[in-house]
Amino acid sequence: MAEPLRVVVTGAAGQIAYSLLFSVAKGDVFGKDQPLELLLLDITPMMEVLNGVVMELMDCAIPLVKNLVATDDPNVAFKDVDAAFMVGAMPRKEGMERKDLLKANVKIFKAQGQAMEKLAKKSVKVVVVGNPANTNACILSKYAPSIPKENFSCMTRLDQNRAQAQIAAKLNVSTEKVSNIIIWGNHSSTQFPDVAHAKAEVQGKVVTVPEAVQDDNFLKNEFIKTVQQRGAAVIKARKLSSAMSAAKAACDHMRDWFIGTKGGNWVSMGVISDGSYGIKEGLMYSFPVTIENKKITIVQGLSINEFAREKMDATAKELEQELSDALAECVD
Ligand SMILES: NC(=O)C1=CN([C@@H]2O[C@H](COP(=O)(O)OP(=O)(O)OC[C@H]3O[C@@H](n4cnc5c(N)ncnc54)[C@H](O)[C@@H]3O)[C@@H](O)[C@H]2O)C=CC1
Ligand SMILES: O=C([O-])CC(=O)C(=O)O
């Protein structure tokens, strides 16, 4: 059997982690034959709750879990980690935008970046879930400069999954019949869910999503708005932000990173821009990517029309402003 992978989950006593840990532990992400050491980080006042989570994980009696460590010490949690789910951060409440969390959350990612710099494996693969996810991921990477920038990402997979589910419902097909929807930009209400290059299989025939849906007005308006506002809609209904679906998306993201994407399909991830599609270098921007041997490659050469260009630039502009606000918060 392979050596155990060391996997850290921050915010381990919170609601996303409660679903995430179960899926990771039973092999949904790193494979059914991959043993795991799970490192669970939360803050000191949450240690009793976290111990309850540890008891439950033990009680699941999952053979892949070789070691469980619950801690409030980043020096323990990030030591030699291979994969990091960075969930620990304050969630927003009804009426807030995700960027309103910047002040409260960005310093967490500065401190954890500094800890990763000292302790994590240089090959560690990191997904930031805590909001505002793109900007937090940028800050995390900035404070862990010896870890390659391409090892940091942020999660826009929940937006991708939401978009896929909306199109599948519109077409009355199962979700796996819809692929290659792109989420461009920020995990915020300026994100651009783009179906121009997406495919759908309807009655045995694969066509583009615009051809299948035959309703440009829906695709340009209601669809985009629904995806952009889905997080807020869940908060309004549940009085808590998405957790089960967020955990599922984090698993999808990390699984694709470790196992690879398949069959010419791409997925969306926030990654550090290399200037592709005219997006300023250094921004943590969501692009369509393919993954092979754990290497992420931004899909190149997609045609971008005027409608898309405007939306892609608007979300990039918001990210630039967020990053500059975050950097100002990080000055000691
Ligand atoms: N990128 C995405 O698509 C999504 C992101 N989110 C974000 O994920 C984050 C977590 O959400 P929930 O689990 O619902 O929140 P939660 O409040 O249930 O759990 C957050 C946990 O993080 C812990 N925490 C706070 N500071 C910490 C630190 N310095 N180190 C370690 N742990 C720390 C808290 O004590 C708490 O246990 C929020 O920022 C939320 O907005 C939520 C859904 C989707
Ligand atoms: O909307 C929120 O605050 C939580 C989140 O990021 C999402 O559900 O996409």
Features:
single chain; 332 residues; alpha/beta; Rossmann fold; L-2-Hydroxyisocaproate Dehydrogenase, Chain A, domain 2; 3-stranded antiparallel β-sheet; 12 helices; 14 strands; globular; binds 1,4-dihydronicotinamide adenine dinucleotide; binds oxaloacetate ion; Malate dehydrogenase; Malate_DH_AS; NAD; NAD(P)-bd_dom_sf; oxidoreductase
Beta-strand proportion? 15-25%
How is the CATH topology of the largest domain named? L-2-Hydroxyisocaproate Dehydrogenase, Chain A, domain 2
* Topology order in helix (H) and strand (E) letters: EHEHEHEHEHEHEEEEEHHHHHEEEH
Bound ligands, named by name, code or SMILES: 1,4-dihydronicotinamide adenine dinucleotide, oxaloacetate ion
First-last Cα distance: 47 Å
| Global structural class | alpha/beta
Mean pLDDT level: 97
- Work out the count of structural domains: 2
Biggest sheet record: 6 strands, parallel
Helix fraction, binned, reads 40-55%
Q: Indicate the multimeric state.
A: single chain
Q: Tell me, what is the CATH class of the largest domain?
A: Alpha Beta
Helix count from the secondary structure assignment: 12
Radius of gyration: 19 Å
Shape: globular
Identify the CATH architecture of the largest domain. Alpha-Beta Complex
In CATH terms, the superfamily of the largest domain is Lactate dehydrogenase/glycoside hydrolase, family 4, C-terminal
Strand order of the largest sheet: 3-2-1-4-5-6
Low-confidence stretches: none
Q: How many β-strand stretches?
A: 14
Keywords: NAD, Oxidoreductase, Tricarboxylic acid cycle
Domain Lactate/malate dehydrogenase N-terminal: 6-152
EC number: 1.1.1.37
Catalytic activity: (S)-malate + NAD(+) = oxaloacetate + NADH + H(+)
